[in-house]
Write a structure and sequence with these properties.
GO terms for molecular function: zinc ion binding. It comes from Caulochytrium protostelioides. By secondary structure, the protein is an alpha+beta fold. About 30% of the residues lie in helices and about 10% in strands.
Length: about 60
């Protein structure tokens, strides 16, 4: 990979994307390269939290994005 980083933590974080998925969901077949992505998946898919509400339709979502 030819990406260049000015800070080591950014390089270290990017380097993980070249490794195999190392964080697997215990409830389904989803796999992730980063632990925060696994946590976000579990919160939004399996816990069914929906704290974000659309101002237009009132539908609730697990993530604001």
């Amino acid at each position: 990979c030819a990406r260049v980083f000015t800070k080591f933590p950014n390089l270290k974080s990017h380097w993980r994307c070249h490794l195999d998925n190392q964080f697997a969901c215990a409830l389904c077949d989803a796999e992730f390269k980063r632990r925060p992505d696994l946590y976000r998946h579990c919160r939004s898919v399996h816990v069914m939290e929906a704290p974000h509400m659309c101002d237009r339709c009132g539908k609730r979502f697990a993530r604001a994005d």
